[in-house]
Write a sequence for this structure.
């Protein structure tokens, strides 16, 4: 009798764990927050905006350091982009902005669509996105050009992975094409972006965009920066040799180099606003 | 003889096993309130179970399922405060202290206290939570309101967020349970 009770004991002990065989939450465990914001430095990152969220973006690049003391090492000169982007749903976002580049004025718009999302435990090992951006030059010197000669297109595949809690890596093979005074052009580049968390709310970012097609004028964009997150803001500060602020410009129209001190200080300011509240 | 007793006791054990109420769509919400800011989040994917014979109460809360009014709050909650990629669930496992007072076969509202281990953000603490069990027909309802301190669970609130995020968080539990289906 005692033996029998003793034998039964383990059954009760097992019974104590009532949730052991419960099927939990059915949603796959997505790996999120690979980057603090939707940009690495200039490149689009593998982050999406939440559905119904508007992100106001102000991007600022000073002049390059080699402008010398008379121009306060570039601080007197600036390119600026004002823009915003909006999360249409959890996998689709769109943005629009206006920037200057000397006398050249640009209006740009883009969409970014997530096709794959990284899931914990390598069930889906990486995140993949498609990006398409278009730039329209609107400065006075372009007034004589018809519409097709003012547009530059950028298509990008963005593949990235949050490798550990602190380190994320992404590749952005890019194609930039358009026509100018009746001549068509296209350039292929491979964007490389990564970030390492320094603390919970700060990261160090590195970005390099080698242009693979032969073009003697285009220099490879190289940027080093830091993300600082404070409440609803993300503040990105960096050094870069790129002056332009949309894909057509910083991928295929970077003219200065680091070894000639063609680098500039810059920052991106991101402020999110919830426009449509998520339904519970 | 021994075999018969063993068989009888086993049958009893299986019968006892049947007296479990559970759900996987329970609700837990919390409120953070400071002088300057108040916000809340709700989670309706909470697993909960109660065993009638021993009064075991168990909860499993998937941290990423908390929904906030603003997406950015959810991001900060998951990444900066709860670190949910490392600690994806919070659990409570305890016992009803005054089990004999609860008549699971009689409709009514019973005031009880559950005592047990609460694990959150990788830290486990023994807590005692007063609550209510409502028996109605063949279903059970569990309700509880209690307060926890972020600092007890090593959830750090940065200095410049102290005015908007409270260290003391009010949690309320509202779960409707039904008899567990046999396999």
């Amino acid at each position: 009798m005692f033996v029998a009770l003793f034998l039964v004991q383990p059954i009760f002990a097992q019974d104590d764990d009532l949730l052991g065989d419960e099927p939990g939450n059915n949603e796959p465990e997505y790996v999120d927050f690979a980057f603090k914001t939707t940009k690495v430095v200039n490149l689009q990152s593998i982050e999406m905006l939440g559905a119904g969220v508007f992100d106001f973006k102000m991007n600022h690049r000073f002049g390059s350091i080699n402008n010398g003391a008379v121009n306060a090492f570039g601080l007197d000169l600036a390119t600026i982009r004002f823009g915003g982007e909006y999360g249409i749903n959890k996998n689709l976002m769109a943005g629009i902005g206006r920037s200057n580049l000397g006398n050249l004025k640009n209006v740009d718009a883009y969409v970014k669509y997530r096709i794959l999302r990284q899931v914990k435990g390598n069930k889906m090992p990486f995140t993949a996105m498609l990006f398409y951006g278009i730039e329209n030059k609107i400065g006075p010197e372009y007034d004589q050009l018809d519409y097709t000669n003012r547009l530059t297109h950028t298509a990008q595949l963005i593949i990235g992975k949050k490798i550990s809690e602190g380190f994320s890596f992404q590749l952005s093979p890019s194609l930039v094409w358009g026509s100018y005074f009746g001549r068509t052009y296209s350039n292929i580049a491979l964007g490389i972006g990564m970030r390492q968390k320094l603390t919970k709310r700060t990261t160090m970012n590195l970005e390099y965009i080698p242009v693979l097609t032969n073009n003697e004028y285009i220099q490879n964009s190289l940027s080093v920066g830091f993300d600082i997150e404070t409440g609803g803001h993300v503040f990105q500060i960096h050094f870069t040799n790129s002056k332009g602020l949309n894909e057509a410009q910083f991928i295929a129209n970077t003219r200065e180099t680091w070894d000639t001190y063609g680098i500039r200080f810059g920052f991106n300011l991101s402020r999110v606003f919830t426009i449509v509240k998520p339904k519970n | 003889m021994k075999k018969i007793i063993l068989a009888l006791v086993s049958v009893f054990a299986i019968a006892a096993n049947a007296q479990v109420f559970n759900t996987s769509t329970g609700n837990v919400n919390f409120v953070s309130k400071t002088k300057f800011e108040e916000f809340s989040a709700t989670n309706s994917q909470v697993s909960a179970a109660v065993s009638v014979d021993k009064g075991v109460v168990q909860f499993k809360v998937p941290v990423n399922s908390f929904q906030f009014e603003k997406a950015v709050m959810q991001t900060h909650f998951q990444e900066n405060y709860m670190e949910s990629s490392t600690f994806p669930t919070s659990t409570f496992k305890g016992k009803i202290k005054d089990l004999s007072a609860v008549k699971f076969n009689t409709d009514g509202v019973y005031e009880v206290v559950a005592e047990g281990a609460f694990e959150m953000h990788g830290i486990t603490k023994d807590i005692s939570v007063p609550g209510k069990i409502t028996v109605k027909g063949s279903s059970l309802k569990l309700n509880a309101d209690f307060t926890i301190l972020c600092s007890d669970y090593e959830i750090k609130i940065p200095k410049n967020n102290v005015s908007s995020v409270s260290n003391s968080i009010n949690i309320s539990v509202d779960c409707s349970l039904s008899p567990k289906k046999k396999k």
